[in-house]
Structures are given as structure tokens and as C-alpha cells.
Amino acid sequence: MATVLARTGRHQQRYEDSLRLVSGCIPYRLIENHEDHSTDLEKSIEVLMISSPNRSDLVFPKGGWENDETVEEAACREALEEAGVKGILNEKPLGVWEFRSKSRQETCSLEGGCRGVMFALEVTEELKSWPEKENHDRKWLSISEAFELCRYEWMRQALEAFLQVMEEEDRELERREEVVEPDPTPVVVTDVVAECTIMSANCYKPSCGQHRGIRPIRV
Question: What DSSP assignment string belongs to 154-177?
């Protein structure tokens, strides 16, 4: 398998209103065979956070959105480079937040301002080696643990938006199950991925008109 290298430099960086444009995601996975899924959604999901160089706090993977890629592709690339994960991206953004880079203001703009778009990424593959492994450790956390570790308010807001999206998809899946007789054939992860459209080498997106839901049976 070819070695994937992390992008470096700022020569292709996008800016808007003197703000560096950033794209990122909240990687997540479903906990298998959780008995309380229908009553407590938070306990059925884990999210992935990563460490930052020379800091003790954890963050979600994100980075500069460059001019040769879409904002969705940038989110997938950052997930691969920083966290070593690939998956299925929900193209509906969780939101847009403006914040200041306190650790390295000069990497964003003269004022240190960033405008970031965040997405939800269902992880389907975890790599043993990834471009920025030496700089970032990764850790799976419960929703409550992630809330406690979010250093900045915008991160907590993004996590709240993520949880709201998951709850909306769960309700939609329940409505569909009420009117459609369930297929007795288990849905495996490889089948789900095969039915998705390739967005980039790093991730997929649901095909047009396809509703993923959040309760695939994993084997």
C-alpha cells in the first residue's frame, strides 16, 4: 500500500474575511449489541478525539481547507492525516464556528482567526499507521467523556449538534421501521460501504436518496 503523506505549507490555504478556513469532523462508531440503544442513544455511540503536540487536551481532527478540494474532502483528509481513520461522511454540516487559534496564531491569519466547518464521520476503517501518528494519539470516548474533555465552547457546541443529528437519524429510522417490514438479512459494514458513493480515497458519502440511519448490524 502506498504511503500517504500529510499536506504541509499554506500556499493553497483558503481564506475568507481574513479568516483561515478550516474543515474537520467528529469521527464516531456505534457500540455493538448495546441493550439500551433505544432508550439512551448517547451510550450507544463513541467519538474519537486526538491529542495535540505539546498539549494535554484532546481535540477533534481538523485543519486547513485548501483550494484544490471541497470542504467535505478536506474533512476526510484531516481525519486520515491526524487520526488515521476513514469512513462515511454525513454531508450535512454540523455547523460553522469562528474561533481563535491560541497556540499558533500566525498559522491562521494576522489576527489568529479561523472559520471552521464540522461534519460527522462514521468510521469504517482504523489504520495502524497514519501520516501524523507521531504527533497525535487517538482515543475513543463516550459522549459524556468527550463533553468533559472539550477545551473550547465551540467544540462543545459542535458535539451538541452532532448528538442532535444522531437523534434525528434515529427517530427517522424508527419511523421507517414502523412502515417497512424489516429485512431479515443482516447489514454488514462492507455492504453499507459498497452502497455508498466514493467521495475521495479517504471516505464515502451516502448515495443520492439513501438514508443511512444509525443502527446497522455489524458482524
Answer: HHHHHHHHHHHHHHHHHHHHHHHH
